[in-house]
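FIELD: query
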Amino acid sequence: MEMFKLAIKRCIRSHGFTFKSIYRRSLSSLVSNNALVDDHDIVVLVEGKGSSRTAILNRPSLLNALNTSMGARLQKLYKAWEDNPDIGFVAMKGSGRAFCAGGDIVALYRFINKGDIDSCKDFFRTTYGFIYLLGTYLKPNVAILNGITMGGGAGVSIPGTFRLATDKTVFATPETLIGFHTDAGASFYLSHLPGYLGEYLALTGDKLNGAEMIACGLATHYSPCSNLPLIEELLGKLVTDDPSVIETILDKYGELVYPDNASVVRRIESVDNCFRHDTVEEIIDDLENEASKTHDIWCISTLKKLKDASPLGLKVTLKSIREGRNQTLDQCLIREYRMSLQGVSKKISNDFCEGVRARMVDKDYAPKWNPPSLEQVSNDMVENYFLPLSEVEPDLDLPTKQREAFT
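FIELD: result
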């Protein structure tokens, strides 16, 4: 219990920070017949007049999966709002039952199979660019995380000032289960969670509810979704650019909640003991030893999640989170951009396309990973995953001289 209290205190101090049932429902609904480019004005709507504006992610049939048009429109809107002296703060929410389930990975899959890697680059460049803009934004931002908030959906919200979770919030970073790596800034914010919880979430893709997000610092406030209409109404009437004034509303209509006894957040000591290691093999060995001695359900289920994931995805994700511990947001995004291009290029492995095929296209849930085991993932493969595609491939260009990244 003392470890749990310590973890809560640690994350409260850091105020500023897409499988089974829910994963299958959320990821499978992202199958898009559209490309990553849509009508800009339709995919992100705008509410508000006076002193605030709200961006509404608007692809509800696809759980508001991010595409290039959404990233471009968000950048345009947020830059204009930042420059407008009459606007004090901004907010973001999603249409329908999701905030945002992540990137439209089926559209990426189709681009890759057509050999259109440039469209993939455009998507990552635009999305990561917006994440950096949000992470360096000069005005308060409120993200209303009502519903599914996975992968890139977390990326376009967590770097902001306030993250309001609800009783319907479901957070996860399930990329290793589709043969990818945790991206969209995840190597930054996950690496800053208490202990080695970030490694656990990144490698297993396990989901958290709103109370758990509050406990570990991923969310700043919690409120039942029934309170959202009132909260949004009151925020819309504010004339302020003062974060403390906005926080007063969020505090007044928020609730104090705690994770239940079975929550992983209450197992920080166990998580740290197993996920502190430098290699995935050592993590699995510790979990297997503990499971054989105690038959602990958490150890057994965690092992299954790891064994379902891409071996290459696990190894590059662990390295990415560890590097993120000592990097700024811009450094993490630049590195993740390199990694994402490697992941979609098929130069090292076809795991991303195979993972999307197995879980979202053919839905046989039987991916054939290459390499098929951790032992067959060489050090060179892992190291090459962090390199540019070629000597002439430009890195992600972020305006670091104009907008200072936070650490």
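FIELD: remark
The first strand starts at residue 44 and ends at 47.
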